Amino acid sequence: MSELIDHLKQVLQSLDRPLIQENECWNSTEDLQSDIEHVRLILQQAGIRKGDRVLLGLPNSYRFIAIYFAILSAGAVAVPINPRMPVSELQTFLRRCCPAGGFLTEKQSAGLIEPYTSQKVLTARLILKESKLNYLKWKHRDRTEQRLLTESPEPLENDPAVLLYTSGTTGRPKAVGLSHGQIYAAAQNIIWAHRLTSKDIVYSFLPLFHINAQVVGLISPCLSGGKLIIAPKFSASRFWNVVNGQHVTWVSAVPAVLSILLHTGAPDHISSGLRFVRSASAPLPLLHAQQFEKKFGVPVIESYGMTEAASQICVNPLPPEKRVLGSVGLPVGLSLQIVDEQDHVLPSRETGEIVIRGKNVITHYVEADNQDDFRNGWFHTGDIGYVNEEGYVFIIGRKKELINRGGEKISPYEVEEAIRQLPEVKQVAVIGLQDPLYGEKVVAYAVPGPGRATEHLAEKILDHCRQTLSDYKCPAGVEIVDRIPTGPTGKIQRSLLKKQIIAGREIIQEKSL
């Protein structure tokens, strides 16, 4: 049995206690243990075998959690997908993923048309139908069920546990297969870095079809014996009420959430038990971090992770240890280096590509156009950054997003960081567009803050950039727009923005929190 499943079983078989809250109702460790076993029975009756891929397309909920853990404990492979994925996109996904079954929303299941409803997809609908039998209320096992559960092969350390697809900036999404051992190693790193104990209560509202929410906001709190408050999505109006009313000790968030909270009123008081707010999944503007800590008096813990590392790579230490705002922190539980284009290791303060290796890092893609990201035992992240003399890691951009203006490499992050200093700007994205003279030019797209005048804003941004940035880094143009495309966690989709601009289409926001 894998350490991940063995540890989870130990937690669930200990003294019965509240574990997961949904809609202000607590589900206990006994509830979750019982429901996991029942879903395993459903999987077995549907013919799901060890190593089979099982789709999980449900919204954030206790139901998602019970099914997710059941798939893993049964030795199958969980394939979480966006529950709002359009049926047309889902059909393409099914052809590529080849799942043996799955749990889908009613809309997705009903929308699967005949040419794509192979026997495997019909099995998915069968499981969905059986899962409607109020299985979360089921408590008793008969001898037949106990026999089936006993016969189910237990997953091992190197067995695949989760399959996720990276968004990517070019080419097809890459299929990332994470083993039980890799996920467990990542969870242990998070528990250690955040000093998680049975006294902790996390507020988790990030989408569970992403690795961050799965490992940081779900698995790590459960394995540490803490409690979890699950929400379908972030709500600014409910945030502080939940934190104060439920004695939340830490929050797993993204920069977009911190930005929204900054533009809302502060509560009369904030629970002294709130130890920190963790920020991940996208670059955290330095100004926002400083403003958040000043306004709310809560430490912001910036971190860095990716799907290929089963979530966390670096994280800032908790108080009273040294935190460096603007840095993603120190590597935890893995090795990290900065290398040049010839893979030579660079000294501190020199900029290059971030490469990593460790127990939580994959060594190959399950499916990809190539395996070029893996060389000499290191995974090449595609992120550009540097490490200071104390070991703190700073990220300045993505390798494929760097703007090449006449041979000068420009990080869009750096330009965006300068523009965000203006209070009139709510959101900004910087991309490189073709230029006949320099090859590429820097162009900024800015969304004004609520109630802010747009007249002369572009000129003000340009003037500010000229005062704070080198000439070659200053935008050749600034466009004021209503929206900028972002992903489910609020990360700016620069590649999508660039495609829209090149195609001459209106800028639209694809997804939002």
Enter the CATH topology name of the largest domain.
Answer: Rossmann fold
> Which bin fits the share of residues in helices?
25-40%
Number of structurally distinct domains = 3
What is the CATH class designation of the largest domain? Alpha Beta
Q: Give me the number of helical elements.
A: 15
Largest sheet: 9 strands, mixed
CATH architecture of the largest domain: 3-Layer(aba) Sandwich
Mean pLDDT rating: 87
Summarize the structure in words.
This protein has helices at 3-12, 29-45, 62-73, 87-97, 106-110, 119-131, 143-151, 180-194, 211-223, 236-245, 255-262, 286-296, 412-419, 457-468, 494-503, and strands spanning 18-22, 25-28, 53-56, 77-80, 101-103, 160-165, 175-179, 201-204, 227-230, 250-253, 276-279, 300-306, 311-315, 330-331, 334-339, 352-358, 374-375, 378-387, 393-398, 403-405, 408-410, 425-435, 439-448, 477-480. With 513 residues, the protein is α/β, with parallel strands linked by helices. The protein has three domains: 3-156, 3-Layer(aba) Sandwich (Rossmann fold); 182-398, ANL, N-terminal domain (Rossmann fold); 403-503, GMP Synthetase, Chain A, domain 3. It has a nine-stranded mixed β-sheet with strand order 2-1-9-8-10-11-12-13-14. Helix 3 (62-73) links the parallel strand 3 (53-56) and strand 4. Helix 2 packs across helix 3 (62-73), helix 8 (180-194) packs across helix 9 and helix 11 crosses helix 12 (286-296). The relative contact order is 0.08. The model is unreliable at 113-126, 128-147 and 505-513 (pLDDT under 50).
